[in-house]
Write a structure and sequence with these properties.
- This protein is 41% helix and 15% strand.
- The chain has 12 helices and 8 strands.
- It has helices at 4-22, 26-32, 40-53, 61-76, 141-157, 191-198, 202-207, 232-244, 264-268, 303-322, 333-337, 345-367; strands at 80-88, 93-102, 111-118, 164-171, 208-215, 224-226, 251-255, 273-277.
- A 6-stranded mixed β-sheet has the order 1-2-4-3-5-8, with helices on both faces. A two-stranded parallel sheet has the order 6-7.
- It binds zinc ion.
- The site of zinc ion (ZN) has 4 residues, from loops.
């Protein structure tokens, strides 16, 4: 057995090891106690309903049916819904953005968070490998549907304080660029979001904290690089939220390319905006394998991918932006984050004593002649 002078440092070392091991990782403990409700399977069931209406070409009957469907869903969860209509000259059609608001107010100081997705599907599948499909419409399960259903499930689960106003905006005519009659917007793309931003009052523009756009988030092997035009501060915060949830495999810490999407009209108006979009698939296809083909169908959309994106936004909005939390304590979320979780003192003492006892017992046994 060791001499008492050697035992003391050894026991101290053992105690330290036990104490360090007993303190759980701060972020893990925080996430474990944070109840996230966003369900990928719920989002996927909304996608099945969206696909019953698809294709949703701007100005079509399906577009009107989509408004009725979304309005019914959003009202169930106490969102105020309004339809923004305008005449598009190029095609002589009435187009529509659908806007849902919660905690709406005229207060100058109240910040607005915008979550946006385009709901239209592309008229022509002009990237289909088979040229005979180029005149067919894109079903749009990923390109249209995925962003929409993430918003619909967020509408169900989001809890946020009265200090924040949220707008869910479903944009029309994002995806018709390069097709005859579809001019305006940004080279024919993003017509709905361009109109929407043009209608904001100067006060509303000032009150918008950030616009977060969600598009093409349903791929099975989802990879989301940081879109190059997006506001770097908000991008960093959202990607950090994803990392806390263990989704760094999907929200990768890498800068991607510049994309024309519904965030651009906001950025051009000086409003911070982020585009959460797959820019290239893991196997090298631009955007995703079925982009602008007739195979952009529900079989090629993953409910797990929808859940990762939805939960990241749920956590980011409730925990980082709103400071209202469903954490079942009296503390606010921000206070919780700066504190180490408490570990029962009694358990620590008991654990330490047990280790010391075992150590002494082994030493006594090893001293006895065999
Ligand atoms: Zn598209």
């Amino acid at each position: 057995m060791l001499s008492p002078s050697k035992q003391i440092p050894l026991i101290a070392l053992l105690t330290t090891v036990v104490l360090i091991g007993a303190i759980p990782c701060r972020e893990t403990a925080l996430i474990d106690s944070y109840p996230l409700e966003f369900s990928g399977s719920n989002a996927f069931s909304y996608l099945e309903e969206y696909m019953e209406l698809s294709p949703i070409i701007p100005g079509s009957q399906a577009s009107l049916q989509f408004h009725a469907y979304v309005t019914h869903h959003l009202k169930k969860f106490s969102w105020e819904v309004e339809l923004q209509n305008w005449m598009h000259q190029g095609t002589n059609q009435t187009l529509h953005n659908l806007i849902a608001k919660k905690h709406a107010s005229d207060s100058i100081s109240k910040e607005i968070l915008i979550l946006g997705a385009h709901y239209d599907t592309r008229l022509l599948a002009d990237r289909d490998p088979d040229p005979s499909n180029h005149q067919s419409p894109v079903p749009g399960a990923n390109d249209g549907g995925s962003g929409v259903v993430v918003l619909l499930e967020l509408a169900r689960v989001l809890d946020f304080s009265q200090d924040l106003e949220i707008w869910l905006v479903f944009f029309d005519a994002e995806d018709q660029g390069g097709i005859r009659g579809w001019d305006g917007g940004i080279q024919g793309w993003c017509i709905g979001s361009t109109y929407f931003v043009g209608q904001l009052s100067p006060l509303e523009q000032q009150r918008i904290l950030v616009a977060i756009i969600i598009d093409l988030v349903g791929d099975f092997n989802l990879i989301l690089k940081k879109e190059r035009n997006s506001d770097p501060t908000y991008v960093q915060e959202i990607w950090q939220a994803a990392a806390k949830l263990g989704y760094s495999d999907c929200f990768v810490d890498d800068i991607g390319s510049s994309i024309i999407d519904d965030h651009i009209p906001f950025l051009e108006a000086g409003i911070p905006a982020v585009d959460i979009i797959q820019q290239k698939s893991r196997d090298g296809y631009p955007f995703f394998q079925w982009h602008h083909t007739i195979n952009d169908t529900i079989e090629n959309v993953s409910s797990e991918s929808l859940e990762k994106v939805g939960r990241t936004l749920e956590y980011y909005i409730e925990h980082d932006l709103s400071h209202v939390s469903s954490i079942p304590t009296t503390q606010t979320a921000s206070e919780t984050e700066t504190q180490l979780p408490s570990f029962p003192r009694e358990s620590l003492t008991l654990l330490t004593l047990s280790v010391i006892m075992i150590y002494i017992f082994i030493q006594i046994k090893s001293k006895k002649p065999g």
